């Protein structure tokens, strides 16, 4: 789950070691050691368990429930678009894979091969693929869609419809602000016509994350695999295809954006438990009465559609339970102690900002619903405010270099000439200010530099009339987001 993004996945098959402690709490702070903090949060927050095979992990129920919420929403939406679900094998034959040689080239280092069945050598090796247009794989948990159309116009329309659904997953469910845009030619999906994307940003690291992509594949794969149809005129024609996907990376992005030094912070819409109810029976208190009140509170909330549970475990103190459920990111904690029981009220504590609110039992359901809605919106607003504070508009190469060193997401006018290849080399098209920089220095400083996404001609009232490219000095064609990325 975004393990690659946070540099948490172990290398060469070694299981990630996470520091074990007898008590609760994290050993690392988010602002001081982001990678180690992330590793602790996803393990101690009971989201995943690392596995002894590189790139693999166990998705635990606390994380799986979030995926199911997203899946339920997305599945209903694509069915409205008359898109149907199907299921494909795990394996791809080498012969079929070879037919998409140009597309697969960029993924070649990641392809795993099966060469034996029992003790017998296979006549032809079989590939296990993390991605493929030949056959969709289930090697790790993701959603992937493939559609075909008679015309490019229909394909273009669906690309944007799906991109909007991805935006909604991030912003409406995960409370993570994203930027919708189009990838440059250099960074588009291999073999596709063009790629659109929703991009998130992690202020703590100053890095962008490709959240989800919606591609128009054009007719490239239709030519490869001879996917034809008979049009209205009775003529043979090739289809126009799209491909779109998101993965459990989305959950990782949510953790990176909202998590804090106490652990996870979950938006109410995706939290499997939205409210945890904890009894606080002091000495000589009416313990049975308090426990009954907690059970009644859970019952009342559940009946109103709120996902609530009570922690009646008797081997931990209330303080330990507070920390435990804070680590797991439950949006709202309700405490009922002797004074609350006597006053026929509860104390509600928000996970996002730790504010406390005393709520009369008579107003319980209405107030809790309002608080959950407020938490959901507040998480998005705070994240957007932090993200926006990191966006810097630049017009010159010197401004660009300075902004990048400050972990900014950069918005700059661009002439649309590709001047960085995959290893960061200057290709010679965008000259201007780049002439003054030694190539070795560019490679060293901007090895992980990538265009996040770009929007054409106008962006939030910014026009490009008489605006020059920040790097080449030539007339700009697009406003483009730049920044280091995972």
TrEMBL record:
GO molecular function: ATP binding; proline-tRNA ligase activity
Keyword Protein biosynthesis carried by entry: yes
Keyword presence, Nucleotide-binding: yes
GO cellular component, one term: cytoplasm
Keywords: Aminoacyl-tRNA synthetase, ATP-binding, Ligase, Nucleotide-binding, Protein biosynthesis
Pfam families: HGTP_anticodon (PF03129), tRNA-synt_2b (PF00587)
UniProt-listed PROSITE patterns: AA_TRNA_LIGASE_II
InterPro entries: aa-tRNA-synt_IIb, aa-tRNA-synth_II, aa-tRNA-synth_II/BPL/LPL, Anticodon-bd, Anticodon-bd_dom_sf, Pro-tRNA-ligase_IIa_arc-type, Pro-tRNA_ligase_II_C, Pro-tRNA_synth_II
EC number(s) given by UniProt: 6.1.1.15
Ranges where the Aminoacyl-transfer RNA synthetases class-II family profile domain occurs: 123-267
GO BP, sorted A to Z: prolyl-tRNA aminoacylation
Signal sequence range: none
Protein name: proline--tRNA ligase
Source organism (scientific name): Handroanthus impetiginosus
């Amino acid at each position: 789950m975004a393990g690659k993004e946070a540099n948490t996945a172990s290398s060469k098959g070694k299981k990630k070691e996470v520091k074990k402690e007898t008590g609760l709490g994290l050993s690392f702070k988010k602002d001081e050691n982001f990678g180690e903090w992330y590793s602790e949060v996803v393990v101690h927050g009971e989201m995943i368990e690392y596995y002894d095979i590189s790139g693999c992990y166990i998705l635990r129920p606390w994380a799986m429930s979030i995926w199911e919420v997203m899946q339920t929403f997305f599945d209903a939406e694509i069915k409205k678009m008359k898109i149907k679900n199907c299921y494909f094998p795990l394996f791809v034959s080498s012969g079929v894979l070879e037919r998409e040689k140009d597309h697969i080239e960029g993924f070649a280092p990641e392809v795993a091969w099966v060469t034996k069945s029992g003790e017998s050598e296979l006549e032809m090796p079989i590939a296990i693929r993390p991605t493929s247009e030949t056959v969709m794989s289930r090697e790790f948990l993701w959603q992937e869609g493939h559609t075909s159309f008679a015309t490019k116009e229909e394909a273009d329309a669906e690309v944007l419809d799906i991109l909007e659904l991805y935006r909604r997953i991030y912003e409406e469910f995960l409370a993570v602000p994203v930027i919708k845009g189009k990838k440059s030619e250099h960074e588009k999906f291999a073999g596709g016509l063009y790629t659109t994307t929703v991009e998130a940003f992690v202020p703590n690291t100053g890095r962008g994350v490709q959240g989800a992509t919606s591609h128009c594949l054009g007719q490239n794969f239709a030519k490869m695999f001879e996917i034809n149809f008979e049009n209205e005129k009775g003529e043979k024609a090739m289809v126009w295809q799209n491909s779109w996907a998101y993965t459990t990376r989305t959950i990782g992005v949510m953790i990176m954006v909202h998590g804090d030094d106490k652990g996870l912070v979950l938006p109410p819409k995706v939290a499997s438990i939205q409210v945890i109810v904890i009894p606080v029976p002091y000495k000589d208190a009416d313990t049975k009465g308090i426990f009954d009140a907690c059970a009644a509170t859970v019952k009342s909330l559940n009946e109103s559609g709120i996902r609530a549970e009570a922690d009646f475990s008797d081997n931990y103190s209330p303080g330990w339970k507070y920390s435990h459920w804070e680590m797991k990111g439950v949006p709202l904690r309700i405490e009922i102690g002797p004074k609350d029981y006597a006053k026929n009220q509860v104390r509600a504590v928000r996970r996002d900002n730790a504010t406390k609110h005393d709520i009369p039992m008579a107003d319980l359901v209405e107030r809790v619903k309002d608080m959950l809605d407020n938490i959901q919106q507040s998480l998005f607003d705070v994240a957007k405010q932090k993200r926006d504070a990191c966006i810097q508009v630049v017009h010159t190469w010197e401004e660009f270099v300075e902004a990048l060193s400050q972990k900014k997401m950069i918005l700059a006018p661009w002439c649309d000439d590709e001047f960085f290849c995959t290893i960061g080399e200057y290709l010679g098209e965008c000259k201007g200010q780049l002439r003054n920089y030694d190539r070795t220095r560019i490679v060293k400083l901007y090895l992980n530099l990538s265009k996040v996404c770009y929007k054409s001609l106008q962006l939030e009232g910014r026009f490009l009339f008489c605006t020059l490219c920040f790097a080449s000095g030539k007339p700009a064609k697009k406003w483009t987001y730049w920044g280091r990325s995972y």
